[in-house]
Design brief:
This protein has 212 residues and is mainly β. The chain contains 2 helices and 15 strands. The protein has helices spanning 146-149, 195-211, and strands at residues 11-18, 21-33, 36-39, 43-44, 47-48, 56-62, 70-82, 85-91, 97-98, 107-117, 123-131, 135-141, 151-158, 163-178, 181-191. The strands form 3 sheets. The chain has a 6-stranded antiparallel barrel. The protein has a 6-stranded antiparallel β-barrel with strand order 10-11-12-15-14-13. It is elongated, with a radius of gyration of 21 Å. It starts with 10 loop residues before the first strand and ends with a helix.
Length: 212
C-alpha cells in the first residue's frame, strides 16, 4: 500500500524520532494530491510543531479497521500553506510494511535518585538512567551486587514536571560500565505514576526542545 492511498478523514499516527527521543501524535488525513499525503498539523502552545530537522526521522503508522497496522519509515515532511490553511505534506517512496510496536521503549532520565533496599532498609544514592513501561535502570556502586539489592523502592524528583516519582521493583541484571560503577536493570512492579504517561510527557518535552 502506498502512503498516499490512505483516504481522507482517516486517522494516522505520526512518529518522530530524534536521537534517543521518540514522540507520537495522532493526526487526520486532510487530502492527497500528486502522490503526497496532506494532514492536519500538530499545534503546541498555538504554534505548528516543526519536524524538518536533519536528524529527525519520521514514520507514519496506519491501521485500517480490523487490520494489522502498516508503517512507512523514513518519510519526508514539510509544512505547506494552501488557501484552506496549513498542512503537513508527507511523502514516502516505499510501500508500507506490517508494523510490530516495540513494547518497552526506554526513556532516558539522568536524574539522581534514592534507593531503599527492602530487606535491610539500607539507602543508596544512585543515578536513574532510564525508565520504560515495565522497568527501570540505575547506576550504582560496583561494591554492591544485584543479589544484595533484590527488591527495592526507588524515588527521584523530576523538578521540570514537579513530580516525585516512586518505583518499586527488583534487580534482574547488572553490568559494570566503568571503574567503580554498575548499571542495574530492573523490573518495575509498582509506581505512584503511570509510567507510560510519564514517558510520553518526557518524550514530547525533549523533541519540542530540540525543534524549537
Amino acid at each position: 500500500m502506498k502512503l498516499y492511498e490512505i483516504e481522507q478523514g482517516e486517522q494516522i499516527q505520526l512518529m518522530a524520532r530524534l536521537e534517543r527521543t521518540s514522540v507520537e501524535y495522532d493526526i487526520k488525513v486532510a487530502f492527497c494530491t500528486q502522490g503526497i499525503l496532506c494532514t492536519e498539523p500538530v499545534y503546541i502552545d498555538g504554534k505548528i510543531l516543526n519536524f524538518t530537522g536533519d536528524q529527525v526521522r519520521i514514520s507514519i503508522v496506519y491501521a485500517g479497521e480490523g487490520e494489522q497496522p502498516i508503517v512507512w519509515e523514513g518519510c519526508g515532511i514539510q509544512t505547506i500553506q494552501t488557501k484552506q490553511g496549513k498542512y503537513y505534506a508527507i511523502i514516502s517512496q516505499k510501500d508500507g510494511k506490517p508494523w510490530n510496536r516495540r513494547q518497552n521503549f526506554r526513556q532516558y532520565i539522568g536524574l539522581p535518585g534514592l534507593l531503599t533496599i527492602d530487606s535491610s532498609r539500607e539507602k543508596m544514592e544512585v543515578i536513574v538512567k532510564d525508565v520504560s513501561v515495565g522497568g527501570v535502570s540505575f547506576v550504582g556502586n560496583t561494591k554492591v551486587e544485584g543479589t544484595d539489592i533484590g527488591s527495592f523502592h526507588l524515588q527521584f524528583d523530576d523538578r521540570t514536571n514537579k513530580m516525585n516519582v516512586q518505583i518499586a521493583g527488583h534487580v534482574v541484571r547488572e553490568e559494570e560500565v566503568e571503574e567503580g560503577k554498575k548499571v542495574f536493570g530492573c523490573i518495575a512492579t509498582r509506581s505512584n505514576v503511570d509510567l507510560g504517561s510519564y514517558i510520553a510527557i518526557k518524550q514530547k518535552q525533549e523533541i519540542a526542545r530540540h525543534m524549537s
